[in-house]
From TrEMBL:
This is Bidirectional sugar transporter SWEET1a-like isoform X2. The chain crosses the membrane at residues 20-45, 57-75, 81-104, 116-137, 143-164. It comes from Punica granatum (Pomegranate). It is found in: Endomembrane system. Residues 186-214 are annotated as: Disordered. One of its GO terms (molecular function) is sugar transmembrane transporter activity. InterPro entries: SWEET, SWEET_rpt. It is a multi-pass membrane protein. The lineage of its organism: Eukaryota, Viridiplantae, Streptophyta, Embryophyta, Tracheophyta. Pfam families: MtN3_slv. Keywords: Membrane, Repeat, Sugar transport, Transmembrane, Transmembrane helix, Transport. Residues 201-214 have a biased composition (Basic and acidic residues). The keyword Transport applies. GO terms for biological process: protein homooligomerization. GO terms for cellular component: endomembrane system; membrane.
Amino acid sequence: MTMLEGLLYTWYSLPFVSPNNLLITTITSTGVAIEFIYLLIFLVYAPKKEKLKIVGLLAFVLTVIATVALVSLLALHGKPRMHMCGIVTTIFTIVMYASPLSVARMVIKTKSVEYMPFWLSLFTFICGILWFLFGLLGADPYVYVPNGLGGLLGMMQLILYAIYRDKKAEPKKAVDDGFIEKVEPKKAADDGSVVEMNSVDLEKANPKKHQDPI
C-alpha cells in the first residue's frame, strides 16, 4: 500500500497533472525506489506462499496506477485531471494510514504494545504532520487532508503506546482473540519453519552422547 501511495503521489505531482510540485515528485519517487528494493529483498528470502501473496498485491498496485494514468491522460485535461488524480491519491493515502488500525485494535484487546513498534508509530506521526504542514503551505488539500488524518492516527498509536507500554500480551488470549495464528509443531515442520528431528537423527548428529557407558 505504501508503494501504491508513492506511485499515485508521483503521478499526481507531475507537471502535466499538477504543476509546481517538483518536491513531491522527488521525494515520492525516491520512496517508490526504496520500496521496490524492499520488495525485491523480501521476494528473495520469503516462503513461496508469501511470495505469491506479494506478487498478487504488486499486480493490484500496477493495475491501479495504470488505470489512473490512462484515464487521466486519455479522458481528462487541465483541472479535472488534477482533481481526479488528487482524489484517488487522497483515498489510497488514507487507506495506507488506516491500515495499522487492526494493530491498534489488538493493542486495546490484549492491553499490550508488543505487536505495535514504537518507532513505526512515531515516524508515522512525524511524517503525517510534516506532509500536513507542507500541504498547508502549498494550499493543496490533496496533500494536507490525508496526511493530517495520518498524523492524527499516528498520534493515537503513540497514546496507546504510552498507556500500555509496560504490559505484556498473554499468548493464549492473543490466540483466542484471533490476533495470532497458533502453529502446531507438525504444521510448522511441514511448512519448513521448524526442523523436526527424531531420536535417530539426534544419534547421528551426536553419536557419542547416546553410546552406552563402558
